[in-house]
Structure formats: C-alpha cells, structure tokens
C-alpha cells in the first residue's frame, strides 16, 4: 500500500490519528520553523511561568513579575516603556516600525485568598496569601514567547510592520487595561491578540459579561455594645442592611444578572459597636445598559441602608469593564491556526496527575471530562457563545478588532479560580497549554502581517458590530485614577 493511501486510511478510516500529527502534515515550512523555534524555548518559558507562579503577586503589586517579562523582551531587542497609564507595573514593548501594528496582551496577576502546591491533592501553602488560580503566570510568559517568535519571523522574512506586547496588570478586578485604553495606548493598533488559560482548547467568537465593581463604606459611631449600645451607630448594620436589600432585589432584576459580594471589614470585636465597615461588590450583565440600571439601584440600596442605620455611606468604583466584542473573521483565522497546532498530549506521569486531580471534581464532573480531552480542539461555533466571566479585554475589543483563544493549561473539568487551577498552572501540563497558545498566537499574527485583506475584512466586521461611527467609548469606571491599592 502506498504511503499516501495508508495515511488516508489512518485519518479517515480508523479515525484515531492525533490532532498534532494531522497538524504537522499541513503546516508550511515557514510555519514549522516558527513552531520549532518556540519548541526550542519551551523549557525557558516554562521556567519564567513557574517563577511568576511562585511569586503570586496580586493586582498592581506585580513588580517582580512585570520586571521579569520586561527583562525578557529587552534582551530580545524590544523597546520597553514601563509605568504607562499611571500604573507602575504596566508596560508596552515594541519591535519594528510602520503598519500593520499587531498587539498581543499579557497578564500576570494572581488571586488573593487561594493557595495550593503543584500537587493533585489539596495542599494549601501557608507561606503564601495568593495563588495563580486563573493561570496568569502562564498568560504573561506565553504571550511574551509569541511576541518574540513573531519578532524573529519579522527579522528573518524582512517584512515591515510592528509587533507590540502589552503588559497588562490587575485583570482580576482592577481593570488595568481600561486605563491603558483610556490613555490611548491602543489607538494606532490594527488587531489585538490574546488568550486565556482554560481546561480546553478553542477559539470561538464568544462574548463575556460587562461588570462594575465597587467598595461601599459605612461609618458609624463606636460605643460599648452592652453598656451603652444606644449611643452607638453600627457601620456593620449599614453593610448588612445593604446586603439584605440587594439580596431581595435579585428577584426583581433580569435573571441573567450576576451580583456577588464579600464583607472586607466588619469590625474588630463583638463588644464594640463598629464605627467602620466595608463591603466589596461585583455586578455583571452582558448588556451594558442593563448593567448600569442595576448598578444605580444598588447605589440606592446603599443610600437607604445608610439612612436607615444613621450611618454615613460612601462608595468607590474600583473597576468596570465592557463585554467582549467578537469578530468572527478573526476567530475563524485563530481557530484555523489552533487546529494546525493541536492540543496538549499528556505523558503517563501527567495522565496520572490529571486522573488524581479529577477525583476532587466529584462524580458529576469526573465522569464527564477525561484527561485525553486536552489533546482535542473544540469545533468552531459562531452561535453567540457567552462566557459568564468578565475581562478588561472587553474594553480593548471595543477600540480595536480583537481575537483570542483558550488553551488547555488545566486538567479537563477544572474550574477557574479553584485550587485545582492553581495546581495545574504550576505544572508541565500548564506549560504545554501555554505553548499551544503561544504557537497559535504567533501563526495568527504572521497571517495578519502577510495578508492585509484579513485586517481589512476584520475591521469591516468589527465596525459593524460596534455600531459604526455612532459608537463612542466611555469607560465604565469614569475618570478615576488607577485603583493601585485595591488589593491592600
């Protein structure tokens, strides 16, 4: 039997040929060279990701993580401008000149209050107060790897144009990119690329929820809670009254709205009437108009709580982000390249890790998702997919055509913001998914440099989607300065 016929039998007859092998059969020599270059540096970028995983710096405090990525880009020949948009840990790294300008986003902030060792059993780390439960330790180095790979391709090919890496802090509630958008740092960019860690590989043109976040602060009068309670006015009563009204309000707002909160300050001792209390709220909806309406009602509830408890209420908007604006033209191109790259194949040791970790998901998840799914690429879908999460990439997507993908950096079945996500993000499983993303971003960026019609078509679709000339960008967080202390 001829080799070509045997290959067709394996692919179409038996149907078991791995995605990665299928991909290699259709890659051009140029693409193979780009991917080989990334493969040769995989261990190095894995080391960077593990270092950022170890540091686990929260939003606007990512000094070491940001400096590490800046150093990597500087060594590679990029011009780096640090401290942009009034944010010490934000930066822009640029290589090349002229059009097109292709941007790549990089994140590196951790989440507070969740720690875990890189093990499949629950093992919190007492030495840490935060963990990379959203995989941003992979997001930053993966994007840097892609930017450097594209820079190397630009040099070798002699193509004109600019590759730009945006170091974007505090995605987790701090809305770092919003300030960068507001500063005009994306005003000359043709297309922006991004990715995110996940438990599967996909590049659908999905959207997300817009959100507004705020801290509501109540100030009362301290008094002895037993000897003279009548002389006190409890700030905690103000917080609890607001929470009670918001929880009743849930019945009378659109059912797809998301509202959640934590009491960040509730007093120091039960026998002292608290003179200060604070509650931190998130509200989300896919429609910004509905979001803003619900937000106004929340403020009224807070005002009423202050009046009813005779406490003084003030609030500070911490963050606010738009929903993602998908561009199907770009999503199809990203999906094409993700399919060429293929998913993540586990070693026996990684499979053992994944199976053990999967036991912690419970029967409902463990019986549905299998470790082998990390090797697959989800079929393309344009059925208005909606993520219930929020991201400040949303604001970027409304000022420049933007496209992203998810890569299987976590064991299939893993939930974001979980200890299982922290564990996977600190392992070789996470690094493999990170390199899938780096490769897919690189191939897509190169396509955009080589084919101007891709950019033109994407911009036409994008302009139509955002409402044409009638659209005017206004940040949901207003004109406030970056909330640099929101995690302190």
Automatic annotation (TrEMBL):
<dbReference type="InterPro" id="IPR036264">
    <property type="entry name" value="Bact_exopeptidase_dim_dom"/>
</dbReference>
<dbReference type="InterPro" id="IPR011650">
    <property type="entry name" value="Peptidase_M20_dimer"/>
</dbReference>
<dbReference type="GO" id="GO:0016805">
    <property type="term" value="F:dipeptidase activity"/>
</dbReference>
<dbReference type="InterPro" id="IPR017439">
    <property type="entry name" value="Amidohydrolase"/>
</dbReference>
<dbReference type="Pfam" id="PF07687">
    <property type="entry name" value="M20_dimer"/>
</dbReference>
<dbReference type="InterPro" id="IPR052030">
    <property type="entry name" value="Peptidase_M20/M20A_hydrolases"/>
</dbReference>
<keyword id="KW-0378">Hydrolase</keyword>
<protein>
    <submittedName>
        <fullName>Amidohydrolase</fullName>
    </submittedName>
</protein>
<feature type="domain" description="Peptidase M20 dimerisation">
    <location>
        <begin position="212"/>
        <end position="303"/>
    </location>
</feature>
<dbReference type="GO" id="GO:0005737">
    <property type="term" value="C:cytoplasm"/>
</dbReference>
<dbReference type="InterPro" id="IPR017145">
    <property type="entry name" value="Aminobenzoyl-glu_utiliz_pB"/>
</dbReference>
<feature type="signal peptide">
    <location>
        <begin position="1"/>
        <end position="23"/>
    </location>
</feature>
<dbReference type="GO" id="GO:0046657">
    <property type="term" value="P:folic acid catabolic process"/>
</dbReference>
<dbReference type="GO" id="GO:0071713">
    <property type="term" value="F:para-aminobenzoyl-glutamate hydrolase activity"/>
</dbReference>
<keyword id="KW-0732">Signal</keyword>
């Amino acid at each position: 039997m001829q080799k070509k016929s045997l290959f067709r039998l394996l692919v179409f007859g038996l149907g078991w040929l791995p995605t990665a092998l299928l991909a290699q059969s259709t890659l051009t020599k140029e693409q193979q060279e780009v991917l080989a270059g990334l493969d040769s540096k995989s261990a190095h970028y894995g080391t960077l990701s593990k270092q950022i995983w170890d540091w686990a710096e929260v939003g606007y405090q990512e000094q070491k993580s940001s400096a590490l990525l800046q150093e990597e880009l500087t060594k590679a020949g990029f011009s780096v401008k640090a401290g942009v948009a009034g944010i010490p840990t934000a930066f822009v790294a640029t290589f090349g000149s002229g059009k097109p300008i292709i941007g790549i986003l990089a994140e590196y902030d951790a989440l507070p209050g969740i720690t875990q060792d890189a093990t499949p059993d629950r093992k919190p780390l007492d030495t840490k107060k935060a963990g990379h439960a959203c995989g941003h330790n992979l997001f930053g180095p993966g994007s840097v790897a892609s930017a450097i790979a594209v820079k190397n391709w630009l040099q070798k090919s002699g193509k004109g144009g600019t590759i730009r890496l945006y170091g974007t802090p505090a995605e987790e509630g701090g809305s770092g990119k919003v300030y960068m958008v507001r500063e005009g740092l994306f005003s000359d960019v043709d297309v922006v690329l991004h990715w995110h860690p996940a438990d599967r590989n996909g590049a659908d043109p999905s959207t997300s929820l817009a959100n507004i976040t705020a801290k509501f602060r109540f100030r009362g009068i301290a008094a002895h809670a037993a000897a003279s309670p009548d002389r006190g006015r409890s700030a905690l009563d103000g917080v609890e009254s607001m929470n009670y009204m918001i929880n009743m309000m849930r019945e009378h707002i659109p059912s797809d709205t998301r509202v959640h909160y934590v009491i960040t300050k509730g007093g120091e001792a039960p026998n002292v009437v608290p003179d200060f209390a604070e509650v931190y709220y998130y509200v989300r909806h896919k429609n910004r108009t509905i979001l803003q309406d619900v937000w106004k009602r929340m403020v009224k509830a807070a005002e009423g709580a202050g009046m009813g408890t005779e406490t003084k209420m003030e609030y500070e908007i911490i963050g606010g982000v738009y929903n993602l604006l998908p561009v199907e033209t770009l999503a199809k191109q990203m999906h094409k390249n993700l399919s060429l790259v293929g998913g993540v194949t586990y070693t026996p040791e990684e499979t053992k890790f994944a199976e053990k970790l999967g036991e912690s998901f419970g029967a409902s998840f463990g019986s549905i998702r299998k470790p082998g799914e990390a090797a697959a690429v989800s079929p393309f879908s344009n059925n208005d997919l909606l993520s219930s999460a929020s991201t400040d990439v949303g604001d970027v997507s409304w000022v420049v055509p933007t496209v992203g993908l998810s890569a299987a950096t976590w064991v299939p079945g893993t939930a974001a913001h979980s200890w299982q996500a922290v564990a996977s993000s600190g392992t070789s499983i996470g690094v493999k998914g990170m390199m899938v993303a780096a490769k897919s971003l690189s191939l897509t960026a190169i396509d955009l440099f080589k084919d101007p019609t891709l950019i033109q078509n994407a911009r036409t679709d994008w302009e139509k989607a955002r409402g044409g000339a009638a659209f005017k960008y206004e940040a949901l967080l207003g004109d406030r300065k970056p909330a640099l202390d929101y995690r302190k």
